[in-house]
Input
Amino acid sequence: MNNFEYCCPTHVVFGKGTIARLSELIDRNKKIMMIYGGGSIMKNGVYNQVKQALEGFNVIEFGGIEPNPKYETCMKAVEIIKREGVEFLLSVGGGSTLDATKFISIASKYNGEDAYDAIMIREEPIKESIPLGDVITLPATGSEMNNGGVISRLATDEKLPFHNDLVYPKFSIIDPEVTFSLPTKQTINGIVDTFVHVMEQYCTYDVNTPLQDGWALTIFKTLIEEAPKVLSNPTDYDARANIFWCATCGLNYWISLGAVQDWATHMIGHELTAFYGIDHGQSLAIVLPRLLKNQKVSKSKKLAKLAREVFGATEPVDLKAADIAIENIEKFFNSIGMKTKLSDYEIEAQDAAEKVRARFAKRNTALGEKLAITADTAYDILIEC
Output
């Protein structure tokens, strides 16, 4: 096991009726900006629950955060925050809203000309932020218990991640009941996103982390078991709760502690979203099976373990068992209604492969746990997608 440090200051409040706890978690004397997306919280009752919980608080609102949050939108919020003297940010919505809120938190303390370039490209050490908390309404990104986010920029067709310990939420309220009304597409995207988050941290090479591997494999099993229940009965509270906690634990860093991580599927997937506008979950489902085939030899032991412990394979040869794992992962995605080919979205593989190769070549990109996925490797993977 590799050396590691871990500190997560987020206070998690999980369960039914927990939105009412907001009044206990935020200082009544702070000026609050409530940040949300396109209006789904108005339809599912979350907005009213939040407003009721914060009755008497000094709250201003900022709506319109996109499913792939845009830098340009975030900076509009930053302008208001600086003008109005906002002291606390409350994200109400899914992971995209929370990612945007995290970016806004540190961008509000940056006084240079281009916050995107500073935070996302140059990775300047921003040392101040506006504290934030969240009511998370979509199990997917795991942003509710980590220090990262992903932001897109319209002007350059970019989608990049950032991390900063200052953006760990002070608290995260997770009420599985608010997911009952999620559109099926969003539920499926979230399940796939969670599955791939875990793959990025688990499916590398062994450094003797049996506990972390066991946690990862159990998340896979739980997703596979609970997904059909949620899709057949959207108001199954227990299934919704299990899916949500899988999403949170899928990217709160527990399963990666002391282990080795990949994240190449995400970085390639981000480019597909940036160029073609497909959903994040859709991009991951397209890339993962082909990336695993491309990198099968180096990942064979972890894939074989997954095949045997999750999918019940009895194949003794690791490389053959790895094929079984890859095949069953794609079958699982398809079984819950997720398409896994570029052509399913009317995207030409050649066009995608060339665009991503050119961008990665310009950046001298090297991805994966062994930095083996170069611009040319990404091209080879996407051609097969």
Observations:
- The mean pLDDT is 96.
- Residues 131 and 380 are 43 Å apart (CA to CA).
- The radius of gyration is 20 Å.
